[in-house]
Amino acid sequence: MIRIKRGLDLPITGAPEQRIEAGRPVRSVAVVGFDYHGM
């Protein structure tokens, strides 16, 4: 696990809009080793 010790605190208020939109059906998914450290 990578821990972030410093960063920029942005004051974000409010909440996201709760909605689900119709989309195209998913035909395939993949896990790419390059996207995951140590895999």
Architecture overview:
The chain has 39 residues and is largely without helices or strands. The protein contains no helices and no strands. The two termini are 13 Å apart.
Write the layout of secondary structure elements.
Elements: no helix or strand
Quick overview of this protein structure:
Helix content is 0%, strand content 0%.
Amount of beta strand: under 5%
What integer value in Å does the Rg equal?
17 Å
Total helices: the number is 0
How far apart the termini lie comes to 13 Å
Return residue spans where pLDDT drops below 50 for at least 5 consecutive residues: none
Class from helix and strand fractions: little secondary structure
Tags for this entry?
0% helix, 39 residues
